[in-house]
Amino acid sequence: MAVYSELIKNFEKIREYVRDFYIFGFHTRESFDAKSKRTYDNEKRRIESWLSDHVHTSLEGHKKKVSVQVDSGNIFHNPLYQCYRSKTFTDNDIRLHFILMDALEDNAMSVSEIADYISANYGMIIDVQIIRIKLKEYVKEGLVSEVKSGRNILYTKTNCYADDIVSQYKGLGDMIKFFSEENPFGVVGSFIMDKLGAKNNIFVRKHAYMVHTLDDEILIDIMGAMEQKKAVLLSCVSRKNDKKHEITAVVLKIHCSAQTLIIHVCFSKAQARTEQFLIMYFTKQKRLMSVRVDSIVKVTPLDVVADYDTYYRYYEDNRRYLWGTSFGKSRRYGQKEHIHMEITVDEAKEMYVVKRLEREKRSGTVTKKSDGLYAFDIDIFDANEAFPWIKTFIGRIVAFETTNEELQDKFDSDIARLYEIYGGAYE
Length: 427
What we know:
Number of domains: 5
Strand content: 15-25%
Shape: elongated
Strand order of the largest sheet: 8-7-6-5-9
Order of helices and strands: HHEEHHHEEHHHHEEEEEHEHEEHEH
């Protein structure tokens, strides 16, 4: 029987449990019927050890319900970052790390010299290839630098420490505190603060999408693929039916939207439903599409895409027709839908409404038709995405037309229903 450990090898094992406890909450042991009860018990124990101050339990009959409750307006630090500090290492990994740091403390040494040093000082024989691989990893991470000396490559510690850098630049420490609570990748700032021994005691966010933290690892892998212009294999699980599937696609961009957090392959979120989407070029169907980030379990980089820039230009040519993340239903992919709306405004008192219309119109146009009457027109892939925004002007709308017949019917029926509830007639 495996011994329980607070540490984990792969974050994907625990991500969904944390998300479920945080977003949905009040799960019972019986709710997780897809996993063994032992797995549930172990994952719950890990979450309780990491987030002890924020884990709450309640009883429903004889069943215990567990939830993670966090009020972002009353804390300075996102507690979900703690989940990333629990990666397990082998004993040999830990031992080799400190031995290498000791060997390079005041010396510049070649791989063979390091191997001899370890043998002489620690009585251990370590293959030079293992040492070389570890040093290459440290060079990439900035812990070690390499210098050519004749035919040899010498390695030395960089002695580049976060506290030294922060002390050189006024305000840099406060900047790190601010961005440690930003999305995405606030976890990076949080790790830097750990090294500094610093705490955020300045910035509090009333409406923080803390749960996005759980996707930082996924986004970092996505950003790496974008930088290298590589295709990716996305291992996903459906939020509707828990079915697993894979997608091979070209990642193009990351969008962040106040209305939905949008991210390119594509990403989107609203305060009520904080959903992130990747927008990408789906090579199999030869079309742009979006995928929810929280449905992605794993990102596997593939080969460099020779036509990456072509795909990106294709996205650039089409993004003006995006309201959120949808490129339209499959049967209507690439077809634009037109929206025409007219609103009335008291120009003596309500020009702020017109200013808002201008500010939020995206690729649409705002036209003054007459005194107190303004028209909004736009062509987008999916008119349904703009509908919640359209409805914020209810009470001012005197005309609404769209080429999306289903949306037109919905708008008309909604208005008719309002008249039915509050009185009057609608024609």
